[in-house]
Specification:
single chain, alpha+beta, Nuclear Transport Factor 2, Chain: A, 4-stranded antiparallel sheet, two-stranded antiparallel ribbon, 5 helices, about 45% helix
Length: about 200
Amino acid sequence: MFQQLKQIDTAFKLVRNFCLFVMIICFAVCAFAIYKTTAVVKESHEQMYILADGKILQATASSRQENIPVEARDHIRMFHYYFFTLDPDDKVIQSNITKALYLADASAKRAYDNLKENSYYANIISGNISQSINIDSVQVNTAQYPFYWRCYATEKITRPSSIVIRNLITEGYLRDVSRSDNNPHGFLIERWNTIENKDIKIEPR
């Protein structure tokens, strides 16, 4: 009889150990499945697909810190493009200046008001003058906040009788603001200053 009890006790221990082993395996499988699922979801969130010209293109998301220099340079380029691209049309001028002023602080508004007060925009309209800008380079120092920048560009002013090429150098600082439709990069230009804006070439038409 004692032998039978011993056999039952041994069998019970074997069943118990087997059940514990199975439970440990189940927990390990569940933990691995949760880990892999989390990794897949995270990876899927970092990828997006863009439909362009009927083709699906894959894009990968990255942190803003990695893109600050690129976004900062593009913000500065877009500001200068809108501020200095002018045609003899009041609606075009107002549209471009409005877009530019969303990207900068009161220093840009003061520059606009000074030009308007000096009849700069009125002369562009009355003289059938077009103005465009070509950004040569933008240097941004992201080592210290707010970010100091300097922009090197050339302006092309097309008049009925001549084409004037001007050298333009500006500087300022960038600070972070909320992104919006009017300010997609989330930067604001501060203390905008024109260092140089002089004629370098005049070509007759």
